[in-house]
Design goal:
By secondary structure, the protein is α/β, with parallel strands linked by helices. Helix content is 36%, strand content 15%. The protein has a six-stranded mixed β-sheet with strand order 3-2-4-1-5-6, sandwiched between helices.
């Protein structure tokens, strides 16, 4: 199958650099809504048969315009949520941000025993994200779009795709409504088709002033 992993539109935390992984979390900024509104024109002709979101509000709001255009009802899969921030939730100082990213990158480097301060370790993250993807596959869709989150998409895709180095998630950015496209299956393996790091609706939807810790290169 083809799996399009779509990052949600911009949130207030993306602008100010806060670590915000609490469920259900905030909605979108005005720019974030514009990014979401651009998705039908950008993805409407991709043959998407099913839509999925995380349990966080920002993915559900982002998916809504595309869902209306395609006449599809998004399915909520909690496993697609952002990597938990735990004790770092709501912080934006350099030490906290680096601690969050360091734990996530340790998972990508193979150390899944590393635990996010006060939250999940790599085993728990990959288990719940893998399970969500298997649920998507079980629908039998040939093309599906899953609305998820910056750090979660980057780490999961970089580790799971067989044709890329595991440090790809560290060295490639994924801005709001950026899309990572994979092809394959959990049984046979996944292959990276495209990593579109910029907003899929066009460069005019990029906020160069945003201090976005989960979308920037680690």
């Amino acid at each position: 199958m083809r799996l399009l992993l779509v990052r949600h539109g911009q949130t207030p935390a993306n602008v100010t650099g806060l670590l915000d992984a609490e469920v259900p979390g905030p909605g979108l900024t005005d720019l974030g809504q514009e990014q979401a509104d651009a998705l039908p024109a950008a993805l409407g002709d991709r043959g998407i048969e099913r839509l999925f979101t995380s349990s966080m509000v920002r993915t559900q709001v982002t998916a809504a315009p595309l869902a209306r255009a395609l006449d599809l009802e998004p399915v909520v899969l909690p496993g697609l949520r952002e990597i938990e921030a735990g004790a770092l939730q709501g912080k934006r100082d350099t030490v906290s941000v680096q601690s969050y990213l360091a734990a996530a990158y340790a998972w990508a480097a193979g150390d899944r025993d590393e635990r996010m301060p006060g939250a999940e370790d790599g085993h728990a993250f990959f288990a719940r994200y893998d399970d969500a993807v298997r649920q998507i596959e079980a629908t039998g869709a040939e093309v599906a779009a899953a609305f998820s989150h910056g750090a979660a998409i980057r780490i999961w895709a970089a580790v799971t795709a067989q044709n890329v180095p595991s440090d790809l998630g560290r060295n490639r950015h994924l801005e709001n409504t950026g899309v990572v496209e994979l092809e394959g299956s959990s049984a046979d393996g996944w292959r990276l088709v495209d990593w579109a790091g910029e907003p899929i609706g066009g460069d005019e939807l990029t906020d160069l002033s945003a201090q976005d810790p989960t979308g920037e290169r680690f």
